[in-house]
Specification:
Elements: H1 2-28, E1 29-34, H2 42-52, E2 55-60, H3 64-73, E3 82-87, H4 91-96, E4 100-101, E5 124-136, H5 137-142, E6 163-166, H6 172-185, H7 190-198, E7 202-205, H8 208-215, E8 228-232, H9 235-243, E9 252-269, H10 275-285, H11 288-293, H12 295-298, E10 301-302, H13 311-316, H14 328-346
Parallel strand pairs: 1-2, 1-3, 6-7, 6-8
Antiparallel strand pairs: 3-9, 4-9, 5-8, 5-9, 5-10
Helix pairs in contact: 7-14
């Protein structure tokens, strides 16, 4: 009997120690669930850990759409503490899934209200950019063909089989570009007529990584053959930056009247093991230090006002003054139906 009691007591001690160790890990580590394009520099990461006493662990779970879908499947029992990568086009899906708890960092007061789309503050704006058609300057010069000037050029005979686009059901840039065509052509059948006309002329991929790095001729990887891709208005700066040598002009250009505005958000996950750490992380993502690092890590724009931009951005990533847009309410009401219509028009 004493042996049984002793053994039971030992189990209790071990369980308590294990529980204490788990609690310690929860309090000392914060896990950020995010998409594969998230990046943070070592100096900025070290600054966060030094300022908070926390260890940051980044869990990347695919494209932004894939990452959100995975988070929705684990709502209330998340794989991490905070989430980054919901954009304005998936905002209603994220909020409707009850993934986040409200938190408004003090630095939110320094963000332009145009980006603060969730007044409940379950999601906080972190960065913004524009999804556009991007083209390979050298390819068009070599083939003595003018670069495209708008959506309609993709229908013209000379531009057949030059473009790679992402599937809006699996890729957030693909979704943004589909929404851009709705904003440009207007309601009704016009956008889907456009897509039906180019369905055999465009290559569809499931992710931005595959489209840009493997299919686009203008990327620094030089793997692709198609000179037009759905990507970002900041690509000219990125290509100059990664060239590793001074360039008078970027090798890629942007078709600016095809651009659609995109905002990315972060939030504290409901059921997080370390909600206090998650709040500290979201607050840090609006700090001057993190915001200043966004352009040269994720190649989009910071949302914090008066954040200085690096020289390569100021010279090569000219902002889009009036990107195409649709209201969050319009996107929420129609997004899933539009994706189904796009799929029928392009893939079936």
């Amino acid at each position: 009997m004493r042996a049984v009691v002793a053994a039971f007591a030992a189990l209790v001690v071990c369980a308590s120690a294990a529980g204490a160790a788990d609690a310690s890990r929860a309090s000392n580590t914060v896990v950020l669930v995010t998409h594969d394009s998230f990046a943070i520099s070592k100096p900025v990461e070290s600054a966060f850990e030094r300022q908070t006493g926390l260890t940051l662990r980044v869990l990347q779970t695919g494209d932004a759409g894939e990452a959100l879908n995975r988070a929705l499947l684990t709502a209330g029992h998340p794989e991490g503490d905070a989430f980054f990568g919901v954009d304005n086009n998936l905002l209603s899906r994220a909020l409707g899934g009850n993934l986040f708890v409200p938190y408004a960092p003090p630095a939110l007061a320094r963000v332009d209200p145009v980006y603060d789309l969730d007044r409940s503050h379950r999601l906080v704006p972190i960065d913004h950019g524009d999804v556009c058609l991007v083209y390979d300057r050298a390819w068009f010069a070599k083939h003595e063909l003018p670069p495209p000037r708008g959506f309609e050029d993709l229908i013209r005979k000379g531009y057949a089989k030059l473009t790679v686009v992402e599937n809006p059901a699996t890729s957030t840039p693909g979704l943004a570009f589909m929404l851009a065509t709705v904003a440009h052509f207007g309601p009704g059948n016009a956008p889907w007529t456009f897509w039906s006309e180019i369905r055999n002329q465009v290559l569809v991929t499931d992710s931005w990584d595959d489209a840009y790095d493997n299919r686009f001729s203008g990327s620094s990887s030089h793997k692709g053959t198609r000179p037009i891709v759905v990507s970002y208005s900041t690509d000219p700066a990125a290509e100059v930056y990664f060239a590793g040598k001074p360039l008078p002009r970027s090798p890629v250009g942007v078709v600016r009247n095809t651009c659609f505005g995109q905002v990315e958000f972060a939030g504290v996950l409901r059921g997080a093991k370390n909600p206090d750490g998650a709040r500290k992380l979201v607050a840090f993502m609006l700090s001057q230090q993190f915001q200043a690092g966004i352009p040269l890590t994720m190649f989009v724009y910071p949302v914090r006002e008066k954040t200085p931009l690096p020289a390569v951005f100021r010279k090569f990533a000219l902002p889009v003054a009036h990107p195409l847009e649709l209201s969050p309410a319009t996107i929420a009401a129609n997004r899933d139906a539009w994706i189904r219509t796009w799929t029928d028009a392009v893939l079936h």
